[in-house]
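User: Before I run my own analysis I want an independent prediction to cross-check against. Here's the chain; please return only the structure tokens and, at the end, one sentence I can use as a sanity check.
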Amino acid sequence: MFLLDVLDHSVKKLKAQTANVITLTNLSLGGFAIVLGLHGNLNLSLLLIFIAALADRFDGMVARKFNIESELGKQLDSMSDIISFGVAPALLLYQGILHEFGGPGSFFTVFYIACGAFRLARFNVTESNGYFTGLPITAAGCLVTLSFLAIPYIPSQIFIFIIIILSFLMVSTFKLSKV
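Assistant: Structure tokens:
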């Protein structure tokens, strides 16, 4: 009987941490995307950011399915998102094209990250009532990452506008229905 109680308790603890493990997978993928990008492996960095987006999609679903949503999980998710969809995509685009613009390229790379952090902080302290305020950082990060694929095909100046527009969309106050 004791062994069954211990096993049951262990299963409950593991189940309670499932969403957080998925969230930490998101963060790890974003971290590796940054490291690989800094070493010039930009295509692999891009792939890891998109896999992180899948992990980000599933952590919330798992938390709701198992009824294990928590304030800790919400904060951990935001910390992971700033890495995977703020820093990693910004550095990917910087390494891919924005570095060509010198100071302005650096400024708008950091500006994008700052807007993403602001957007996540605002999300964490407000009630959503079924909608997002501003563009979610996951969507912005995926769009920045996707734009990297267009580098050979569109003029380089367009990328400054892409990162500026996405930055402002994240901190804007328009309402976007949750899907």
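Sanity check: The first strand starts at residue 131 and ends at 133.
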